[in-house]
User: Fold CDGSH iron-sulfur domain-containing protein from Rhodovibrio salinarum.
Amino acid sequence: MADRIPAQKAPYSLQLEAGKTYAWYACGRSKNQPFCDGTHSGTGLAPKVFKAEETRTVALCGCKQTGDAPFCDGTHAQL
Assistant:
């Protein structure tokens, strides 16, 4: 299994749309951060697929080390 690569040492703040399904990219290799573009193939890592329950602004993890995937838990401050 490949290591997770921090895409950035800060969260991605963005608005999610209620009812929409998202695939947060766990490995850090995507060109479409923080979402999956399929470049994880062969890494042994997979995206975290989730459905937004409400329309709201969230902080999605950018360092890929969170313990609360796909949301930022502040781990980036320790890297």
The two ends are 21 Å apart (CA to CA).
